[in-house]
Amino acid sequence: MNLTCLLVDDEPPALEVLTAYVQEVAHLKLVGTCENALQAFAVLQQQPVDLLFLDIKMPKMLGTDFLRSLPHPPLVIFTTAYRDYAYEGFELNAVDYLLKPVSLERFLKAVAKATKTEPSPVPVEAPAGPNPDAFLYFRIDRKMVKVMLREVLYVEGLKDYVKIHCAVGPTLVVKQTINSMEEKLSASNFLRVHRSFIVALDKVRTYSPSHLEVAGQEVPIGRMYRQQVGAVFR
């Protein structure tokens, strides 16, 4: 059984090792390599694959969260330096869980397991939007205010505060940093596009290399974020 595969890891040396291993196996066809989940998502939109070699602890989004975002995930072999995620990995029906540094012998055993497992024939679709019932609470004026994630358009950072722009109701000002907001929203349908802005992906109307349009408002794309934003909207 021939399997197309994609390597996802934020460590270049790990990608080099896995690439070399894949090239040793005749029935594995390497589709590409990615440094983070957003790049992997862009590849999967263009070409579904049979098997993912997926790191877990990566910037922007954990590999486990990325896998949960895929409605029809391919077979997955986790590759990580951390034992702590093993239980969660197998809860997600991973074929195998490889600890770095990965030996060729251990790699081949994992591939053998994948070969015996029927890959999903269903094409990969875009990740679903946020759970319509998902929400967060924020302290505003000595009260805890419930915010439904489906109503959030974008978040704007202002030093130690953020402004949460919503489709319904007033803009909310919360004493919290943009970095902490990014962590809270990392498993949902949101993307950091600028050091001061996080947008809801399903609310983006238009995209250009320098700006996004969300609900009639232009949101700038920071130079450091252009590559990952382009990977999503390519």
From TrEMBL:
Name of protein: Response regulator transcription factor
Any one Gene Ontology cellular component term annotated for this protein: cytosol
Coiled-coil features, chain-numbered ranges: none
Top-level taxon of origin: Bacteria
Keywords noted in UniProt: DNA-binding, Phosphoprotein
InterPro entries: CheY-like_superfamily (IPR011006), LytTR_DNA-bd_dom (IPR007492), Sig_transdc_resp-reg_receiver (IPR001789), WalR-like (IPR039420)
Occurrences of domain HTH LytTR-type (ranges): 136-234
Modified residues (4-aspartylphosphate): 55
GO biological process, one term: regulation of DNA-templated transcription
GO molecular function, one term: transcription cis-regulatory region binding
All copies of domain Response regulatory, residue ranges: 4-115
Pfam families listed in its UniProt record: LytTR, Response_reg
Keyword DNA-binding found: yes
